[in-house]
Amino acid sequence: MRRPVPQLGQSGGTTALMAGAATMLLGFAGLATEAGAWYLVKRNAVTAADMAALAAAAAVERGADAVAVGHDTVSRNGFRQAADTTVTVNNPPLSGTQAGNPSAVEVLVRRTIPLTLARLFISTAPVVRSRAVAVVHADEEVCVLALGGGLELGGNSTLNVRRCALASNATAPNGVAVNGSSRVRAAQLVTTGSCNNCTGGDVWTDDTRTQRPITMANRPAPIRDPFVGLQGWTPHSPTGCQTVTFSRNAAAISPGQAICSPVTVGPNDTLTLDPGIYYFKNADLVVRGTIQGNGVTIVMTGNPDSVGTIQINAQSKGDLRGPTSPLIPGHPESDGLLFYRDARATNNGPQKEVQLNGGSTLRLNGGMYFPTSDVVMNGTSDIGSTCLSLVAYRLSFSGNSDTDLDVSGCAGFAPYPTIRTVRLVE
User: Fold this and answer.
1) Which residue intervals define the domain Putative Flp pilus-assembly TadG-like N-terminal in the entry (predicted)?
2) Whose CA, among 85, 182, 219, 415, lies 20 to 30 Å from 302?
3) Tens of pLDDT along 349-389?
4) Which residues on adjacent β-strands are paired with residue 391?
5) Cβ neighbours of residue 153 under 8 Å, at least 6 residues apart?
6) Residues 6 or more apart in contact with residue 248 via CB below 8 angstroms
7) Longest Cα pair distance anywhere in the chain, in angstroms?
8) Is residue 412 classed as helix, strand or coil in its secondary structure?
């Protein structure tokens, strides 16, 4: 039997079909491979944008250049600005729910991906886009902040800060120390150093003694000092000096001239301060009686080695309140500032420590800033406040001091420290 002779048309058609099928399979394989690569670029772009937004928002918190940090972080994650890559960092964001918020940072990453085998099926190169927004979020207000010398709670002292936190930026072995029979009622205890005896003893969130405060030791970043801008300010007291004289146990003074000699408010005296800013030039303020004033900022200044201090003794009473708008030009952080001792002071230590040992009827409301000074509360003091931000180099509560601090009455005008975290929100 004769075998059939192959026809040339059949053989050529099979070859063409096989070639076409191979091309399609190769194209599909190339498309699948490139699609996987596109997905990887997209995932990396999302990661780069997220990391950059978080890093840039953290830069906002510490006062660094958020835009520069954002670009640097994106670049380190593989998306350097180039012909095929566009990176935009906005502080504040230009779009979204955080638009215009100076505490937020927006990062946009865009990359055009070149085509290889996939060009057999598509003609336009795909573009990967990613956007992230991070914001600095205030988690907890801080009533008491020690900047470098630590926060000590000892003796039979009682410190009630139930609606805010106690904090210290001192490094180990300093930080927060709870000693003796001290009683602490606080929402949180936070420090960049050690937190000694913070989880034992009479340390609770309230008097039910059922819950311990949130405690954070060795915090990697210090809590921001809300008054730090004042450290670059050189107080220039007015020319001329006024003398404070008590007549029938009363004296009223107005701002306008410096106070150049010590002022002592005796047990039966009453000192009334008109609204405004008062400069104590190389002069102490000692209060044993009554002091009162609303809308007042008291600045202790003068020669750096002669700056006066403040001593408020246990018998004192009255009501002092900071201003509802800044009294120091160019320093919005002075909004609500009640007391400030010049950061340039070199005569610090026990001889010039600030003593706040107020009596049971003394109310101090506003910011109190002693950046290079030690502050001591001891004896039988009892200071209560619904708006007090106490920031000092070192803070010590001892003796029988009974201090009740709060920020609920600040009405939004007195700056106070906050425990802040950075979060992705978009």
Assistant:
1) 13-59
2) 415
3) 888 899 987 666 788 888 899 999 999 987 666 666 777 78
4) 145, 369
5) 159, 176, 177, 178, 179, 182, 184, 397, 398
6) none
7) 145
8) coil
192 class by beta-carbon count within 10 Å (0-12 exposed, 13-18 middle, 19+ buried)? buried
Range 68-93 burial, b when 16+ CB lie within 10 A, else e: ebbbbbbbebebeeeeebebbbbbbb
Residue type, 23: T
CA distances for 66 relative to 28, 57, 329, 415, angstroms: 44, 7, 26, 23
Return d(Cα 168, Cα 163) in angstroms, integer.
17
Q: How would DSSP label each residue in 99-165?
A: TT-TTEEEEEEEEEPPPSGGGGT-SS--EEEEEEEEEEEEEEEEEEEEEEEEEEE-TT-EEEEEEEE
Instruction: Identify the helix (H) or strand (E) that includes residue 25.
Output: helix 8-62
Residues in CB range of 293: below 8 A, 6 or more apart: 272, 273, 274, 275, 319, 320, 321
SS3 content of the chain, % helix, strand, coil (to 5): 20, 40, 40
- Tell me the CB-side half-sphere exposure of residue 228, using CA atoms within 13 A: 11
- Residue 230 CA to residue 299 CA, distance in Å, equals 11
> Which pLDDT value is given to residue 233?
94
Q: What is the CA radius of gyration of the chain?
A: 33
User: Which amino acid does the sequence have at 364?
Assistant: L
Strand partners, 116: none
Task: Say how far apart CA 353 and CA 59 lie, in whole Å.
Answer: 34
219-266: pLDDT as tens digits? 888 888 889 999 999 998 888 899 899 999 999 999 989 999 999 999
**Token pair of 8, please?**
């040339």
Give the pLDDT score at 8. 46
Residues 105-138 pLDDT 10s? 999 999 988 766 666 566 777 888 999 999 876 5
| 423 vs 426: CA distance, rounded Å | 9
